[in-house]
């Protein structure tokens, strides 16, 4: 189903790209847009995950540089029966996280320093389980492709402002066509993002709760992240709003209503669903999947919040 959905998404985005080209430059513009769309589809399939990670200046970590965080992801991946994804940290005070990659074999998960410093151990596990659920459900390809192509369509719409009004071009609708390219096309791209985002979050919440074994820990994490997301700005996300749907909580300001114009379902609805799930869910401890405490204590770990040895005084996410 996800493969069909992704193919339909690519077809729609390509047609939209061609339509903008037609409005801006006539048939010649449409053919140029088609060639660009084909090239972008190919590039996005193979490289969109790297592009998004680079956009947020994500730094890859391993068991030596972030043993607790890396260990959480490793053991949750084992629980889910997934290959070990690449693990990244984003130096950003807003608590948030996302997953990317074209398939489980080429997946990556990323958490912000704000998230790793603000959440408890079990809450971090709940968030990363949610992201691994996206990987397992193969949402990440659709999410990342949408982010790349929607951003390109919005940029092409902006080009219309500079080039569409030229009377010497082949634009069949003149100023009206240019105005449509500037307003309708980016709006249509945003609508695709919203259609992709809303239903998959509930599914990832449920599967993530199953992977980590603690739906209430994920619910608590969502409550904390949502409370901070609109208080702590994410400048990179604000500059690249086409990527907002990739995060576990919308990183942009002013998006709280559970309606057609929201990139995510209302957090209150997601929390209610998880709490309802918890009432009938057998919840084994997440820590049963973790290495023995004695083993972790013997590791040489940095003193930063998201990599502290748990034998030291509680701080950051490990309280």
TrEMBL record:
Q: Where is the composition biased (Polar residues)?
A: 279-303
Q: Which GO terms describe its biological process?
A: proteolysis
Q: Which InterPro entries match?
A: HtpX_protease, Pept_M48_protease_HtpX, Peptidase_M48
Q: How is the cofactor bound?
A: Binds 1 zinc ion per subunit.
Query: Which Gene3D superfamilies does the entry link to?
Result: Metalloproteases ('zincins'), catalytic domain (3.30.2010.10)
Under Pfam families, the record lists: Peptidase_M48
Q: What is its EC number?
A: 3.4.24.-
Topological type in the membrane:
Multi-pass membrane protein
User: Disordered: where is this region?
Assistant: 277-319
Listed under GO cellular component are: plasma membrane
- List where the protein spans the membrane: 7-24, 30-46, 141-163, 175-196
Tell me if Transit peptide is a UniProt keyword of this record. no
* Annotated compartments: Cell membrane
Q: Which HAMAP family match?
A: Pept_M48_protease_HtpX (MF_00188)
Q: Which family does it belong to?
A: Belongs to the peptidase M48B family.
The entry's protein name is Protease HtpX homolog
Taxonomic classification = Bacteria, Pseudomonadati, Pseudomonadota, Alphaproteobacteria, Hyphomicrobiales
Q: Which gene encodes it?
A: htpX
